[in-house]
UniProtKB/TrEMBL annotation:
Top-level taxon in the UniProt lineage: Bacteria
GO biological process, one term: signal transduction
SMART domains, per the entry: HWE_HK
Predominant localisation class: membrane
Domain HAMP: 308-360
Compartments where found: Membrane
GO molecular function annotation: ATP binding; protein histidine kinase activity
Name of the protein: histidine kinase
EC number: 2.7.13.3
One Pfam short name: HWE_HK
A GO cellular-component term linked to this record: membrane
Amino acid sequence: MPGLGTAEHGLRQGVSSVRGRLVLLTVSLLIPALLAMGFLLASADRESRGRLYQQLVTTGRALNGAVDRQAATGVSVAETLATDQALIDGDWAAFHARARRAMERRSGWIVVADANGQQVINTLVPYGNPLPRIQRTREETEAFSAGRNKVSDLLNGPVAGKPVITVGTPITVKGQFYVLSYVVESASFASVFRQQRVPDSWVATLLDNKQRVIVRSRLNEKFTGAQASADMTENLRHSTEGVNKSVSLEGVPTMVAYTRSPQTGWTLVVAIPRKELASTVNRSVAVGTGVFLLLLVLGVWLSLVYSRRINRDMRRLVQDASAIGRGETLRPAPRDSLEEIAAVHAALLTASDELKAREERQGVMINELNHRVKNTLATVQALARQTFAKVDGAPLSVFTDRLIALSGAHDLLTRTGWREADMAALVAASLGAHTDRVDRAGPTVALAPHTAVGLSMVFHELATNSAKYGALSVPNGRAALTWRLDPVTDVLSFVWRDIGGPPVTPPTAPGFGTRLIESSIRREQKGQARFDFQPEGLVFEASLPLPEAVRWSNPV
């Protein structure tokens, strides 16, 4: 029956179109929607509570993250001041003045105490005033002894006379152990609640590792230092994050979300009264039901209105895709296109441009790769020639160690796409097995690839020389490497110093390592280098200008 076959084909073709599918989808929603209404009313309450619980947890995590960031700022302040030259030199008066100036725009202050807890400096009072002794906890003592920073729990500041939090970092001044601490009032953490806009009816509380209140968004002065409620303590004993019923310190039944920070160990608790929770959920159910019915009716109408327009724009996308395959340039999307269709068109246009640009970049990348390989092979060739031709009896291990130091610099540069290498990471990679016996200090410096490759060999040779003849050749010997960067001239200078090694006598003739170091600094880096063979140990000083721009880079 031709008529029947034609009708079936037309029906199948209509259902397969975008317009037919939209209409069919809308109609299919009507029947399940009516059946779902009863289930919706029953499940809306549970879903609303779940969303509110999730909002509590999300708020707690956001507040906890903000607290961690504020604590991290304190760590940064302490670590930055720990590198102050006046502090390193033991000039307490000068450091006190500089620390007070540094704290003028901050809410905290600086305290330096010795190994016994006796305060040496406290910027809250003039320098020279008598200062009390600090009683450190076992956790703080263990952390400082291991060379780690430590954020304290709630403390009573003996000078400030208020509850405080300290961020301490261990330092060494003229061979003596001290702890430099950045101290803030515990109430300063209340700014986190204001920044995150905690609702007025909610109560946010920050607890330390002993479940004592550090700060609270409501009645803070009254409850600072108070112990968390028994049920809250029980919750924290079983998990580090969750949502449970509780009773606030004011005795109000609440629903609380809590999350513990892995950095500080503190717990952020967000509580909402259960009475308010019930009213919020009921209101959400009513609003959700009304919106659902309205959207259902609106969806039927919009499916009929927009189906024709979607079909038209989809046909244009098919034409655009065909044009890309033919290598043709796409025309701009019509102004009346739907936002999603316009986004797909823009993506196709970007893909077309990227395909052309990628062909050009491939040529550039191949040339750049050839250049780098040639440079690397030339460096390896020079190392082989210098090691095996000019050094009598040089073992294969010496050549291998130098190649490993060079490859360490290459690995660092590869992680950044050969754009730069961090000075501290380069030093650690170049020292190899001697890393733990070399004290290192200096600011963050980004080195260009050419500079990083050259300096990796310099640091390796210094460590190797010290391991053979200098301080690292004896069990108790150590070495120190410090560097600094002139912010005006961009000149990088560093000093290597052997400490506690055997007596040193100047060599009669420079060895290969000395020649390699001088060649790398003076010829390749256009810098200055000086060896000072002092009886108590070698002192090597060098300075070199950093290039204004990275010499090698990958196309992006």
